[in-house]
Amino acid sequence: MSANVLRKLRLIALAAAVAIAPVTLATSATAHNHGGEAHEGGIVISQPFARATMPGARVAAAYLQLRNTGKTPIKLVSATSPVCEKVELHTMTMEGGIMRMRQITDGVAIQPGGTVSLAPGGMHLMLMGLRQQLTPGTEVAITLTFDGAPT
Fold first, then answer.
1. Are 49 and 24 in contact (CB under 8 A)?
2. 49-59 pLDDT, tens digit each
3. What is the spatial distance between Cα 96 and Cα 60, in angstroms, rounded to a whole number?
4. Backbone phi, then psi, for 111, in 5-degree steps?
5. Contact 26, 140 (CB under 8 A)
6. Measuring CA to CA, which residue among 143, 147, 151 is closest to residue 127?
7. Distance in angstroms (rounded) separating the CA atoms of residues 25 and 138
8. In the structure, what pLDDT confidence band is assigned to residue 99 with cuts at 50, 70 and 90?
9. pTM for this prediction
10. CA 64, CA 118: separation in Å to the nearest integer?
């Protein structure tokens, strides 16, 4: 193989490795006492992660699970993070063989006793206007704002 082809293959392999490397989302100090879960006012946040980004990337996605342990509905209404200009709630769907991403503007409801997953291929937090590269092992602070539970 030519050197140019090998260089492209190495770059593709590097991009694939970076794309699947997890980044830790910082929850609260409580999270470290409950096996990676943060418990706050009826909401349990678990399995938080984001994928590492390539240098110069301006967007990233973050994922987590939200469980409502209370007796009333809770709604995730917004999020912020110091690593980016803004965080939006998004959903991903397939329409006619085309993947479409749309902003969720009315929040994400979590029913009493229910769990909502923000996971690859579905709902997620979109970190837009990244101020830094997300590298493996990096902790990313994200503040979640709820209607019916504390921030």
1. yes
2. 998 999 999 99
3. 25
4. -70, 155
5. yes
6. 143
7. 8
8. confident
9. 0.76
10. 5
